[in-house]
Fold:
Amino acid sequence: MKTDTKSGEGISTPFRAGDRAATELAIARGLLGIRSLHLTQGVVCMATGWSAYRRPRLALALLAASGIESAWLARRILRIGSHTEPHIAWLDVVFGVAGLYAMAGTTEADDRTAFLNWMCPLTIGAAAGAAVAIDGTASRAAPALLAGSYLVTVRPSFRAAGSQLSTALANATSYGGFYLAARFAVGKLRGDSEKLETARQETLKERERLAAERQRNKEHRLLHDSALQTLELVAQNDQLDPELIRSQARREANLLRRAINGEQDNVAGFARRIRDLAEESTESGLRVELALIDLGIEVRPDASEALLGALREALTNVTKHAGVNQVVVGLMGADGGVRVTIRDRGHGFDQAIESQGFGVKNSIVARMNEVGGTATISSALGQGTKVILWAPT
Structure:
């Protein structure tokens, strides 16, 4: 699920659940790439050392069989997108053991530790594949079986000693070394993939929580800015004209109905909408003087709704708390956006003492923040209040 950065509402889309699958596929392709390299090595050995083999045709048949087995392995792995089937890895190990013994029958004793024995690196790759596909301690048997088989096939080197013995022992330890290296690398990749997926899931949950909170605040703000404000105004003033109350109630009912139905106001003519809001306030007893109104200014829909909602709340606060019946509202382009200024000469308040209520925090400040804008409120006792709203265009 992702969140619309403009509206803050959740939009359901699936997470990339294939992250783990992509990791497994990358691991499998890496193993197949190593296998391809070893098969190429076999081709080079056959082409350059044909006469050195005791049974070259048997060696060629072994190379062909290795190519067929590798092609089958690749097809199986790529079909499921991973090398995670233990029985496939064991079959590869068994083929490798048989290949080592077959190679011993194609070469002279002195050549079994030399480059002609291309089956040795091929089976070292099989040990790495076992580390990837076989879980737990059972996988340790694969490199042990392959290394033991290799040592049996090169046992004449033990009698010869010297460099042949050293090479044979080094090759035998390579099975365990490559197995451990593959085990560590694959474990790290899989662990990182799981951590990444967990982090993304946590991010998703947090985004869903924030989207739900923004939606809840939006609903609370709607009730606060419409019906609640009207009810408080009626409760505080028993001298209001009944017709004025009915007119205001109709406006608030229409506003709530549009919100429930998900209807959007026409955003064309932002300055005109400010004039309409000023006229509504005049009907409620607050005279709004419009100054520096830029009639041609264009505002994107989400910023328009935020500015108008915050302006409505600011005008309502003047009516309820300022003790005056006049306010000045200005509109102009500024700093790559649009700025709306609300200024009254009422009672004001001490900002160091009085905390902001729900209306200021949510209907003004939070509303502007949600669209990347700002709200600045300046006030002092006896000097009135000034509210500056800014939103990017």
